[in-house]
TrEMBL record:
This is ArsR family transcriptional regulator. GO terms for molecular function: DNA-binding transcription factor activity; S-adenosylmethionine-dependent methyltransferase activity. Residues 1-93 form the HTH arsR-type domain. PROSITE patterns: HTH_ARSR_2. Pfam families: HTH_5, Methyltransf_11.
């Protein structure tokens, strides 16, 4: 009986803490060790018990392993059933604070990387994209929105094209140097744009104001990619469009070091699940094979009314 297996697996204070943390965040073993303040061997033993019981799943991403509660199945249903009980335990909240600190450290590490390569970013992108014009592909699908928001706008190249189509544009990035470079280019060309420093998972944009949101090759840099898609839904008006471009799952580990990638792409079914969970209806999906042999998925989704 599943219920006996689940209850037995959760009958330990450390494993209760782990479920409470990993129900909210998918973390690597090293990150879990940092949050829990325990040795890796002890943490690994408890993770194995919970994974064997079906209360956790392990996702491999290159040489890294990430743990979280399964997205479906009886294990997910059990965790959902006990979630409110766990959230009423005040002593578990300290773990949430530490988990937030770990995610913020992820974010700052990415920001520091992009701060150092801001002026070189357009050239570096060509190493991956080659002759494929991703911005043109996105602009073909952008329509003529009222307000367009580029999430992870970088140096503003895509935003320049959006500014020619939309009544107004906002560029959001977590790298101050990237934003400064984008603003410099806009001023030099006399283009109007609103640039805001912030994380894609916590956008500095009001609810329901945007007609178009674009996440172009930014999702794989996020500490919480699913959270990024959820917040994109929040800022879109009902019927608003999300254009999302990112790599298919791959094993090119060197991209972490060379380009600051956090995730080695995303399987199509993973993005479909993220979109559906955030309230989007997928309208179009195209896949392109890049000169670098990476496969790139381009999704067009509409926020449900």
């Amino acid at each position: 009986m599943d219920i006996l297996i689940f209850c037995k697996a959760l009958s330990d204070p450390t494993r209760i803490r782990l479920i409470h943390i990993l129900d909210r965040h998918e973390l690597s073993v090293n990150e879990i060790v940092a949050v829990m303040g325990m040795g890796q061997s002890r943490i690994s033993r408890h993770l194995k018990i919970l994974t064997d019981a079906g209360l956790l799943s392990c996702r491999r991403d290159g040489v890294w392993a990430f743990y979280g509660v399964p997205s479906e199945g009886s294990g997910r249903n059990y965790v959902t059933a006990v979630r409110e009980w766990l959230r009423q335990e005040p002593e578990l909240e300290a773990d949430m604070v530490r988990a937030a600190e770990v995610l913020e450290a992820r974010r700052k590490s990415t920001s520091r990387f992009f701060d150092t390569i801001a002026t070189e970013w357009d050239r570096l992108r060509l190493e991956i994209l080659g002759t494929f014009d991703l911005n043109a592909a996105l602009l073909e699908r952008a329509g003529k929105p009222g307000l367009a928001v580029d999430l992870g706008c970088g140096t503003g190249e895509l935003l320049r094209g959006l500014a020619a189509r939309a009544r107004s544009v906002i560029g959001v990035d977590y790298s101050m140097e990237m934003l400064a470079e984008a603003e410099r280019r806009f001023r030099a060309e006399g283009i109007e744009g609103d640039f805001r420093l912030g994380a894609i998972e916590h956008l500095p944009v009001a609810n329901g104001v945007a007609d178009l949101a674009v996440i172009s090759l930014a999702l794989h840099h996020l500490p919480d990619p699913e959270g990024g898609i959820r917040d994109a839904a929040r800022i879109l008006a009902p019927g608003g469009v999300l254009l999302l471009a990112d790599f298919d799952r791959h094993e090119k580990e060197f991209l972490r070091e060379r380009f600051g990638d956090r995730w080695l792409g995303f399987a199509e079914e993973t993005i479909r699940r993220f979109l559906d969970g955030a309230g989007f209806e997928l309208m179009e999906l195209e896949t392109f094979t890049l000169p670098s042999s990476l496969r790139l998925h381009l999704y067009r989704a509409v926020r449900r009314v």
